[in-house]
Design goal:
By secondary structure, the protein is mainly alpha-helical. The chain has a two-stranded parallel ribbon. Helix 2 links the parallel strand 1 and strand 2. Helix 1 packs parallel to helix 2. The longest helix has 16 residues. It is globular, with a radius of gyration of 13 Å.
Amino acid sequence: NSLSSLTPSGFTPIIESLDQAKIYLQSQGIYGDCTVILLTDGEESCYIGNETEGLLNAMEELKNATNCELY
């Protein structure tokens, strides 16, 4: 399948990705009845600060701004 053909490399900006998802969904007027699925090849590697706190905050902001399910 196509997922098994992916090769991890580079950085893993999970928090920035969640922020960009929020911005995109808001720009499209999407609120509720949506699902965001985050696939990653590793741990957050681009955030300066407490990564766990940053991830939880980004997830909460995305959920509050869009009312989407997040997996």
